[in-house]
Amino acid sequence: MTKSKPAAQSGSAFRVAAIQMASGPNVPANLAEAERLIGLAAQQGAQLIALPEYFAIMGMKETDKLAVMEKDGKGPIQSFLSNQAKRHKIWLIGGSIPLACDSPDKVRNSCLVYDSHGKRVARYDKIHLFGLNLGTEHYQEEKTIEAGNQVVVVDSPFGRIGLSICYDLRFPELYRAMQGVDLIVIPSAFTATTGKAHFETLVRARAIENLAYVLAPAQGGYHLSGRETHGDSMIVDPWGVVLDHLPRGSGIVLATINPAYQHHLRASLPALAHRTLNCSHLTVTSGSESTT
Fold first, then answer.
1. Domain of 34?
2. Domain membership flag for residue 289
3. Which residues, at least 6 apart from 3, have a Cβ–Cβ distance to it below 8 Å?
4. How far apart are CA 283 and CA 50, in angstroms?
5. Which of the residues are catalytic?
6. pLDDT tens string for the chain (292 positions)?
7. By the 8 A CB rule, do 207 and 182 touch?
């Protein structure tokens, strides 16, 4: 049997979906809602579907995720993701789930990717840990999360997919380190405050500067803990155009990815090829030359 070309190489368009949720502390209830939304997206032709950060649990307190953390490769949340991918014959990006790490009082916040056979093909551990001290809002992820340290890019039938999670969005050097990707995925749980101010701007910026499609599923609504997340899940094209978005509540956003259009944009505006600075080898000086 002849192996088919990846969509990004053949120019074939394909459908993607970003799922938005307002998850709570009950894992089975969250998985049931995720299952409903995955099925809805698959029925509408999505071949690649991404869930939001913490889709399986948004606890009453930050330490609740420690109680439901899973060992790598084993557990009901991971089985759910594998089964859903296989059942619908889709590629499924599992937002993020808490996985065990070396520290007994911390987890890795991990994004897992499954192919259409239900096989796990990638794991990315969130590198940048969110911290905020703004009025009555206080967050310090480093208290319960162990940071990852590896950039992860997945070769798929849909091209090269770069993985990131939420706060990573604020660090463009992460996406440059991916060395060219066709699609960037950013599952998030932005706070209402920071999301309203920055989420769309940052997502569109990452699309524009990388000439890449961006798939940004998010938590969006009020949670039982009292936390409010911004939502506004969206799919953005390489020109920075928002193709679809959902302001609040559970639901899906859908769009068609067109690799031929992306190729045309990169040929017309070869900004990625015009890069001249390599920050790892760049010397920074202060002041200016003196004049006489």
1. 12-278
2. no
3. none
4. 39
5. 53, 126, 166
6. 323 334 444 579 999 999 999 999 999 999 999 999 999 999 999 999 999 999 999 999 999 999 999 999 999 999 999 999 999 999 999 999 999 999 999 999 999 999 999 999 999 999 999 988 877 777 788 999 999 999 999 999 999 999 999 999 999 999 999 999 999 999 999 999 999 999 999 999 999 999 999 999 999 999 999 899 999 999 999 999 999 999 999 999 999 999 999 999 999 999 999 988 876 555 554 554 544 4
7. no
Q: Answer whether residue 284 is part of any domain.
A: no
Query: Number of folded domains in the chain?
Result: 1
Confirm whether 253 is domain-assigned: yes
Neighbours of 87 (CB within 10 A): 14
Q: What is the DSSP letter of 37?
A: H
Please tell me the pTM assigned to this model: 0.92
In angstroms, rounded to a whole number, what is the distance separating the alpha carbons of residues 143 and 66?
12
Strands 153-156, 213-216: pairing kind: unpaired
Residue 263 burial (CB count, 10 A)? 16
Q: What is the DSSP letter of 274?
A: T
DSSP per-residue string spanning 143-186: GTB-------EEEETTEEEEE--GGGGG-HHHHHTT-S-SEEE-
Rounded Cα distance between 31 and 37, Å, is 10
Sign of CA dihedral 89, 92, 98, 100: positive
| CA–CA gap between residue 252 and residue 244 (Å, rounded) | 9
Q: Is residue 287 part of a domain?
A: no
Report the b/e string of 41-67 with b at 16+ CB within 10 A.
bbeeebbbbbbbbbbbbbbeeeebbee
The CATH number assigned to the domain holding 270 equals: 3.60.110.10
